């Protein structure tokens, strides 16, 4: 089968690899009809998340059709359309039963202290092959699959695999409630999804900070108040927008690959931190292998964390879902302490959230699909990775259409384009999702 395979930092390829097989009674094999590229995948190629094994299939977002199930899987059968949550849990341990699927005691071969397991990640994260392939093996499939009704098409469903659950989780970590003023740092896929999720959770005002024009435009179409950190100091802008107080809640959807401002007043301040930022970058990505302007790690690893702490009001809450790998050790904890801030972070408990989001989409309350701004051919996936990595105009979220029987193409869901909490704003068009 065709699959996107990690060979080394800066080296990924579309390879022919063996099809997966059932290995355990709780396994399923799923034929992938749509997958997607995530910013987390870029960490492996940029070198900001270590421990990848050569030959690992990438990807942790997919919808598809069940092909085969093990003898222990009682709730799915061949032919079922499903979405695959990105993290893996057994469903039986105390953590899973409490909804903390990302901290399952049994899924990681490294044992209970080893932490989150997800598809297409490093050995420390379970060493599972990923979902950017024609077929995938799903362990603990009786828990690790969520059924998709035919009212939810592939474009909607693939965004419920990771991006929207992570955004929803980030909003919950930030404790967003009715009337809150919220800042979202980062206008990539999770940040864009967080606008809709924050609104659904009751936010009164939403301010999104980024430096890429296309991302700012997409957020503005969702009626977020946007701040361009290449044009103004984002912390000062947020304070001005909030009467000098700061926001009630912050969602950090950036993480370790933050980019230093290129111009404007924030760039002048960042210049004074250049040496410190370089030391942090060298620690975060010591083995980086950029190729020109591609696969370049972020040059300001703690920038989003610093902006979050300074932009939030006293006694506010920060929810961090942007990835900070274990070797990133810099955080402005002293400032957070002196402001009585609540800090929450971590990997999304996808399986606890995905069923609810599927119901919202099926009911027409949420339409995530406009966020899938590019659908390249599978044969062009490596070029698509590079365009996504460089944050090129229009490449906010990249989905991959593997096709085949059971595929439901974009705009075939019952509520296509009608969700009040759509990424494109109320009444937004689905046309953006058809780009090649």
From TrEMBL:
Residues 274-286 have a biased composition (Basic and acidic residues). Residues 7-400 form the Enoyl reductase (ER) domain. Coiled coil: none annotated. Gene3D superfamilies: Medium-chain alcohol dehydrogenases, catalytic domain (3.90.180.10), NAD(P)-binding Rossmann-like Domain (3.40.50.720). Signal peptide: none annotated. Residues 425-436 have a biased composition (Gly residues). Residues 259-300, 405-436 are annotated as: Disordered. SUPFAM superfamilies: GroES-like, NAD(P)-binding Rossmann-fold domains. The keyword Oxidoreductase applies. Residues 259-273, 411-424 have a biased composition (Low complexity). Its cofactor is Zn(2+). The keyword Metal-binding applies. Keywords: Metal-binding, Oxidoreductase, Zinc. InterPro entries: ADH-like_C, ADH-like_N, ADH_Zn_CS, ER, GroES-like_sf, NAD(P)-bd_dom_sf. Pfam families: ADH_N, ADH_zinc_N. PANTHER family: ALCOHOL DEHYDROGENASE (ZN-DEPENDENT)-RELATED (PTHR42813:SF7), ZINC-TYPE ALCOHOL DEHYDROGENASE-LIKE (PTHR42813). Belongs to the zinc-containing alcohol dehydrogenase family. This is Alcohol dehydrogenase catalytic domain-containing protein. It comes from Actinacidiphila epipremni.
């Amino acid at each position: 089968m065709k699959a996107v395979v990690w060979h080394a930092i800066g080296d990924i390829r579309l390879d022919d690899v063996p099809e997966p097989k059932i290995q355990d009674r709780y396994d399923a094999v799923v034929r992938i009809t749509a997958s997607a590229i995530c910013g987390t995948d870029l960490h492996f190629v940029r070198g900001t998340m270590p421990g990848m094994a050569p030959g690992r299939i990438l990807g942790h977002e997919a919808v598809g059709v069940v092909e085969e199930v093990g003898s222990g899987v009682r709730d799915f059968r061949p032919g079922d359309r499903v979405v695959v949550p990105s993290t893996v849990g057994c469903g039986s341990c105390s953590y899973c039963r409490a909804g903390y699927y990302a901290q399952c005691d049994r899924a990681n071969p490294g044992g209970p202290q080893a932490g989150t397991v997800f598809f297409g990640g490093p050995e420390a994260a379970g060493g599972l092959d990923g979902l950017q392939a024609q077929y995938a093996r799903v362990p603990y499939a009786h828990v690790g699959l969520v059924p998709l009704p035919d009212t939810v098409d592939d474009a909607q469903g693939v965004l419920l695999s990771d991006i929207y659950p992570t955004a929803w989780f980030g909003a919950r970590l930030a404790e967003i409630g009715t009337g809150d003023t919220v800042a979202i740092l980062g206008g990539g896929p999770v940040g864009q999804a967080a606008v809709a999720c924050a609104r659904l959770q009751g936010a009164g005002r939403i301010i999104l900070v980024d430096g890429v024009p296309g991302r700012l435009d997409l957020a503005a179409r969702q009626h977020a108040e946007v701040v361009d950190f290449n044009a103004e100091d984002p912390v000062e802008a947020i304070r001005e927008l909030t009467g000098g107080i700061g926001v009630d809640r912050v969602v950090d959807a950036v993480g370790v690959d933050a980019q230093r401002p290129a111009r404007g007043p924030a760039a002048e301040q960042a210049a004074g931190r250049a040496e410190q930022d370089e030391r942090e970058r060298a620690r975060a990505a010591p083995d980086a292998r950029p190729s020109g302007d591609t696969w370049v790690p972020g040059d300001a690893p703690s920038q989003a964390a610093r902006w979050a702490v300074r932009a939030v009001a006293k006694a506010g809450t920060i929810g961090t879902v942007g990835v900070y790998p274990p070797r990133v050790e810099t955080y402005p904890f002293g400032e957070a302490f002196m402001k009585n801030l609540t800090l929450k972070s971590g990997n999304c408990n996808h399986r606890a959230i995905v069923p609810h989001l599927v119901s919202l989409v099926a009911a027409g309350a949420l339409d995530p699909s406009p966020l899938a701004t590019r659908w390249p051919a599978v044969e062009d996936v490596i070029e698509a990775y590079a365009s996504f990595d460089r944050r090129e105009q229009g490449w906010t979220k990249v989905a991959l259409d593997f096709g085949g029987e059971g595929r439901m193409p974009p705009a075939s869901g019952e509520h296509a384009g009608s969700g009040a909490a759509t990424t494109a704003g109320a009444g937004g068009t689905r046309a953006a999702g058809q780009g090649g």
